[in-house]
Amino acid sequence: MLWLIGMAASSAAMALPVPQSHAIGQQLQPELNKGGSAAVKVRVVVDPSGAPVRCSVRFKNGPARNGDTLCALIRAQTRFSPALNVQGIPTFGVTYVWSRWDRGTWAGDEQPSWDPVDVALTTNQVPRGYPEGAIFQLIVFTSHVGSISDCEATDTRLNRHVVDLLCREARAVWITPAKDQNGRAVPSVQQFMVRLTSGKRLEQVMKKVRSR
């Protein structure tokens, strides 16, 4: 169980790759499910110059072609601000691009709340100002073998103690390394998602489950 206390300013020197053009999926003509819905999530490896060198489909709800088409569009037309390591030097980075359609209309590229996280943790209480099941995004630097060294939180309001605890859990997890255009594993900056639930809330959920 983690003990989370206080909130204060913190800053992260690392940065994830950021597409220079937004709403990438809005340019697609997708194949849709019955009812007009579809969703796709792709994993993009960006090199230190900001060029996307690899793209793979990580989730799809709908025809597989949507993911392949989104990857092709990203490779051909999208540039990124490259990832930065703790020294502020451009490096390889991994980012995820979502695209969703509802009733035949593009519904945006925001990460949905049901997207699986990397680690789910139980705490004595969720930090003040956050709901139960709040998701925290970490930025981590991982080696070519998938071990994490540097770690920061994107939320600058989190207390340093909280960030250290979240990062401790992240370091216990192996992350898929990035690969360059030649298929060689390389160190990279990646995102890492953690969901926090209080012990009290977890007990309430378990009581409901046992009473069924």
Question: Helices and strands, in N-to-C order?
Answer: EEEHEEEEEEEEHEEEH
* Terminus-to-terminus distance: 27 Å
Globular, elongated, flat, extended or rod-shaped: what is the shape? globular
* Rg over CA atoms: 19 Å
Q: Specify the number of helices.
A: 3
Largest sheet: 4 strands, antiparallel
Structural class: alpha+beta
Total beta-strand segments:
14
Uncertain residue ranges: 1-11
Strand order of the largest sheet: 3-2-7-8
Average pLDDT, all residues: 86
Number of domains: 1
Strand content: 35-45%
Helix amount: 10-25%
Strand-helix topology:
Elements: E1 18-19, E2 38-46, E3 52-61, H1 65-77, E4 80-81, E5 83-84, E6 90-91, E7 93-102, E8 105-108, E9 119-123, E10 134-142, E11 148-153, H2 160-171, E12 178-179, E13 185-186, E14 188-198, H3 199-211
Short description:
The chain has 212 residues and is an alpha+beta fold. 18% of the residues lie in helices and 36% in strands.
Kindly describe this structure.
- With about 210 residues, the chain is α+β, with helices and mostly antiparallel strands.
- It has one domain.
- About 20% of the residues lie in helices and about 35% in strands.
- It is built from 3 helices and 14 strands.
- The protein has helices at about 65-75, 160-170, 200-210; strands spanning about 20, 40-45, 50-60, 80, 85, 90, 95-100, 105-110, 120-125, 135-140, 150-155, 180, 185, 190-200.
- A 4-stranded antiparallel β-sheet has the order 3-2-7-8, with helices on one face. A 4-stranded mixed β-sheet has the order 9-14-10-11.
- A hairpin with a 5-residue loop joins strand 2 (about 40-45) and strand 3 (about 50-60).
- The model is unreliable at about 1-10 (pLDDT under 50).
